[in-house]
Amino acid sequence: MSYALAHALIAIGVLIAILSVAAGLIWVERRVLALYQDRLGPNRVGPFGLLQVLADVVKIMTKEDWIPPFADRTVFVVAPAIVMVTTLLAFAVVPFAPGLEVVRLDVGLLFFLATSSLGVYSVVLAGWSSDSKYSLLGGLRASAQMLSYEVFMGLSLMGVVMQAGSFDLVEIVEAQRRLWFCVPQFLGLVVFLIAGIAETRRLPFDLPEADSELIAGYHSEYSGMKFGMFFVGEYVGITLISAMLVTLFFGGWLGPLLPGVAWFAIKVLAFVGVFILLRAALPRPRYDQLMSFGWKVMLPLALANLVATAAVVLWIRG
Amino acid sequence: MIAAFYAAAAVAVLSTLLMVTRPSVVHALLYLIVSLLGTAVMFLALGAPFLAALEVIIYAGAVMVLFVFVVMMLNLGPSSSHADWLSPRAWAGPALLAAVLGIELLWILASAGPPSEGVRAIAPARVAESLFGTYLIAVELGSMLLAAGILGAYHLGRRETGRARR
Question: Are B65 and A147 inside 8 Å of each other by CB?
């Protein structure tokens, strides 16, 4: 089989796998959240309520797809597509197992950062084009929040790059054969995890959405499948951040006995579980707290980690 | 690769033209983002993946978000365009200057030979070597300029009321 054909097949496989995982996560989150909150959750449709997602899809597809007359039509329609395109694009560089990636890039890590930085536009443009005050406030919050947290998201990963000596994600995984980077780069891991939650706009950093004060924030005016895109896009984003956490800090596909893909999937699902638990466990901070926490605590931490790692790496290499 | 370069260049030029002519500010910014993405693909086709990634991360992903942020904060709708600015007198001067630049560019392109076909990718480490080796002074000067800019922004944004109240 030729190289191009093999990778096209991998791309299609990854696309199907990611979208089904994201859809499945909606069910998982609802059931697990219910468990944490001592209630049952959706359990009527199919065994354990597994077909609930399917029912939701049918509902959302047949719903009236309404565009507000005061909205900027083109931008309003494009915005939900951007979130799906950018997050799915980032999966192109994730190495699921040796040789099992859509494309291997020299600058794979930078490609991930580039696509995740473009994801902001989806939220911001949705907020702007809706032309309603709640959407606009949500979009404003999202742009400032995601821009701020992106700064040290990139910085926190540079320690990993220094230790591995490459931006190539496959080489970063290979560099963790002896010790996962979560040990020497613990600070980087903490900063990246927090920045990752802010990038996916999940609780406790869901201020752009903030349903208790902004209705639904940037997607207040969206309905039908356009809302569905934002909804599924959020779960694709969670899967992406979990996959990057595993690749960069927890040894990617490395692990004993089981095949690489299985280890990768187990680790990713564990982090997705952490994301869901965080939603159940933590309250939402105020917006000024979020911003000052980012710039006054996280950025200095990321810089300190960067300087310390650089010093140690230089010292060891003599 | 050369075909990809020309396709990306065409997209960049076209979207820049559209950017200049759009009456709505946000639409103009969107075309500018597309133009920057086109430039990134051009870098990629020329064998500079590192530069392409930085172009997307910094210009398309950060600088333009700030632009959109400001537009949203001022809440500029489609009604806030200034069509009356576009009188012949206003654009005649800039158009003349741009024409001079355009002729210069054409002259340079005509005098230089065709682009070389052999494109090879430059690894990130090579970029770092030339930045922090050959061009170290330029990089340091650039960082000083940025520091001055940050200090200036801090000075302008500082609230004087705090001291007066004390």
Answer: yes
Q: How far apart are CA A219 and CA B28, in angstroms?
A: 23
A150 contact residues in B (CB cutoff 8 A): 61-62
> Distance between CA atoms of A109 and B68, rounded to whole angstroms?
26
Tokens of B51: 């530069």
Quick: pLDDT tens for A140-170.
888 888 888 888 888 888 888 888 888 888 8
Partner-chain residue, chosen from B61, B66, B73, that has the shortest CB–CB distance to A140: B73
For B59, counting Cβ atoms within 10 Å of its Cβ (0-12 exposed, 13-18 middle, 19+ buried), the class is middle
Q: Which of B27, B68, B123 sits opposite A124 (nearest CB)?
A: B68
Minimal Cα–Cα distance from B27 to chain A, Å? 8
Subunit contact A75:B62, Cβ cutoff 8 A: no
Burial class of A263 by CB neighbour count within 10 A (0 to 12, 13 to 18, 19+): buried
Listed by start position, the domains of chain A span 68-317
- Domains in chain B, please, with CATH? 1-78 (1.20.120.1200)
In this structure, are residues A247 and A174 in contact, taking their beta carbons and an 8 Å threshold? no
Contact call for residues A226 and A256 (beta carbons, < 8 A): no
pLDDT band at B146 (very low <50, low <70, confident <90, very high): very high
* CB-based contacts of A12, cutoff 8 Å, min separation 6: none
Are B57 and A114 a contacting pair at CB < 8 A? yes
Asked whether A145 and A190 are in contact (CB, 8 A), the reply is no
